[in-house]
Amino acid sequence: MLAIDAKELTKEFKVYQSRPGLLGAFRDLLNRQYRTIRAVDGINIEIEAGEMVGYIGENGAGKSTTIKMLTGILQPTSGELKVNGFDPHKQREQFVKTIGVVFGQRSQLWWDIAVQESFRLLQKVYQIPDQEYKQHLGRMIEILEIEKLLDQPVRKLSLGQRMRCELAASLLHKPKLLFLDEPTIGLDVLVKENIRQFLREINKELGTTILLTTHDISDIEALCSRVIMLDKGKIIYDGSLTQLKKVWGGGRKVLLEMEKEISLDELQKRTADLSVHWESRSPRQYIAYLEQGDGVSDLLSRLVQDMPIMEMQIEEATTEEIVRKIYQEGIPVA
Ligand SMILES: Nc1ncnc2c1ncn2[C@@H]1O[C@H](COP(=O)(O)OP(=O)(O)OP(=O)(O)O)[C@@H](O)[C@H]1O
User: Fold this and answer.
1) In terms of DSSP H, where are the helices of the chain?
2) Which residues 6+ apart lie within 8 Å of 244 measured at CB?
3) Ligand 1 centre from 233 Cα, in Å?
4) Which CATH number fits domain 250-316: 3.90.1150.10, 3.30.70.1170, 3.30.930.10, 3.30.70.1150?
5) What CATH number belongs to 2-246?
6) PROSITE patterns, from UniProt (predicted)?
């Protein structure tokens, strides 16, 4: 079954446009002008139950607007949408019982009461039977290591402690689908890894579908085999991370350290017949970015004979770099 099935999903916002100057302000009073922003522009998304998918894009690409439609907060302007088999906006009451949501910046826990009291309130909201609640919560307390936090008010928790409690709260009712928005923002490496491990476990054990929105590509690398990339409201890539790297990874990066100073000009002259871009870190340190196709051996054959190379390091482009390049160049992937 499809957890998310969106066809030609579109959301437009009508925004008020003000005219400049005093006369403009006066005119605005009499006759307001509006313009339409197409935040999400006819996207098609199909996500199978049990998948873990990363949803990425630059600021303002339309990610939050999509998530708001998928969670029923916003009604789409047009298109068809079924999430867990429901129309999220029209069948909201039944629908929300089937999803969990964690927004890194916002809390779903009550600030001044103890964590366990928040959990109990959520148990009532979702009408979870006592036995099931105890068993499931017990398991999450164990994996997320939040036992000692249960009697603390949320406002006293550190960000990492709060995030672990947020995750437990969002999963108390065993939702089939979990929306995560920047779940590891501001967390240290160890806590990040614990949270990732936890997400992998619930995905495996409970088959929970996860849609992860983040600017942290390492989260996507650690968790998702599939990534959907949005740009100006349109999907520009939907596929595996491996394929993304293959198509967009480009060539390799070669770091060279020379025994003595060499000019950038000299290096460029020697390798003029190759698709290589040189960057200078210092007169003795250079980085050669090779386009796909040209090999490291081609590059070295132009240099090794009489260049005083002291050290050399070959690196693949990281996913982070690839994604940044796609954002910057804005080239849609075929
Ligand atoms: N309520 C609204 N009214 C008018 N315009 C809006 C509204 N919400 C979003 N927009 C506009 O829609 C576009 C997409 O915004 P959205 O918040 O979905 O992007 P995003 O990808 O989530 O960005 P970020 O990574 O910064 O959170 C932006 O141009 C934004 O200004």
Assistant:
1) 21-30, 63-70, 92-95, 115-126, 130-144, 159-171, 189-206, 217-223, 241-248, 264-270, 296-303, 319-329
2) 227, 237, 319, 322, 323, 333
3) 10
4) 3.30.70.1150
5) 3.40.50.300
6) ABC_TRANSPORTER_2
* pLDDT string in tens for the chain (334-residue length): 899 999 999 999 998 878 788 888 888 788 877 889 999 999 999 999 999 999 999 989 999 999 999 999 999 999 999 999 999 999 998 999 999 999 877 788 888 899 999 999 999 999 999 999 999 899 889 888 899 999 999 999 988 889 889 999 999 999 999 999 988 887 888 888 888 998 999 999 899 999 999 888 889 999 999 999 999 999 999 999 888 877 776 667 889 999 999 999 999 998 888 888 888 999 999 998 887 666 788 888 888 877 888 998 988 777 887 888 787 776 544 4
- Domain spans of the chain, in order of start: 2-246, 250-316
Say if the ipTM goes beyond 0.90. Answer: yes
Output the CA 135–ligand 1 centroid distance in Å. Answer: 40
Amino acid at 70: L
Ligand 1 site, CB within 6 A:
13, 15, 37, 39, 57, 59-65
Find the 316 Cα to ligand 1 centroid distance in Å.
Answer: 34
Q: How many residues does the chain have?
A: 334
For ligand 1, mutation pick of 9, 11, 35, 37 (most atoms within 8 Å of CB):
37
